[in-house]
Amino acid sequence: MRYRLLGRTGLRVSELFLGAMTFRSASPEVRRILDAYADAGGNMVDTASMYGDSESIVGELLQGRRDRYVLASKYTGTRDRTDLNAAGNHRKNLVLTLEQSLRRLRTDYIDLYWVHVWDRHTPVEETMRALDDVVRSGKVLYVGISDAPAWLVSRANTVAEFRGWTPFAGLQVPYSLLRRDVERELLPMAEAFGMSVAAWGTLERGVLSGRYNDPGAPASRVSPASLGERELAAARAVVEVAGELGVTASQVALAWVLRRGVHPIVGASSAEQLKDNLGAAGLALPEEAVRQLESAVEFELGFPRDFVEEVDRSPGIYGDAVHLLDGR
């Protein structure tokens, strides 16, 4: 396992994050999952206020070793479905959800606190100021945002920069070989602001592990009959590359995400499954394998990215010497 810096901070985070969304109890198997992750060098555990008992279980599992982990949680989701103010990204829900999470996690601080999803009803200025307050209080060390448009994140970080508030250091998005929409705006935006990117859904509910390639495969999180040719083509390509490299399909799918500089959030139902996923760390995909994977499913950047890249070397726009320019 290798490490990267979280955004423009000095915090070291492992290249693979452990997702705790499916933790239902502090069972011996869940303990083995956490131990396997730690033994591989992993240090980032990601949970959320709305993941059922996950926060409480993570708090129990980390007793006696909490400070060795970079602990991440999220707020936005409702604490009480009968109360409108028990949800959203406004100050009241932030403060009350944070206090609830601290109790559940049995800690007095959270390393990385994510805004879970864009709340269109709360001004982003209110959210950023409230987040800066909890950072200044010491209850949160760094902040990030999940599942929001690029323009909003850009505005939020620009407001934070001008007003001396804490900016978002991390961005969380869905990203996989099958779902590459974030390459259009969100990934370039994150790069411009120096943000770390974490990805959920990297195996597409097991589709990219190859488990549903056989039409007779038993349904699990997905029914094989519901998969279209696009999904099956991607799964076949991943399995083919895995066979050529002598690794598993899951490792190939995760390695493709890692190659983009993105942190996959890996979850597992068993320690053995997690160990297999962790094998993606250090797996270098040959260029030919990458071309094979990406050609299996159609993807277009769309306007304006494709247009800008097309004219980037145009003498008609940038002059006859544009080919001599070493740019970004």
TrEMBL record:
Gene3D superfamilies, A to Z: NADP-dependent oxidoreductase domain
One family name in Pfam for this protein:
Aldo_ket_red
**Xref: InterPro entries:** AKR (IPR020471), AKR_Detox_Biosynth (IPR050523), NAD(P)_OxRdtase_dom_sf (IPR036812), NADP_OxRdtase_dom (IPR023210)
Give the record's GO CC terms.
cytosol
Domain NADP-dependent oxidoreductase: from-to ranges = 16-297
- What GO molecular functions are on record for this protein? oxidoreductase activity
* Transmembrane spans: none
Write out the entry's keywords from A to Z. Oxidoreductase
CDD domains registered for this protein in UniProt: AKR_AKR9A_9B
State the source organism's domain of life.
Bacteria
- The protein here is known as Aryl-alcohol dehydrogenase-like predicted oxidoreductase
Which species is listed as the source? Nonomuraea polychroma
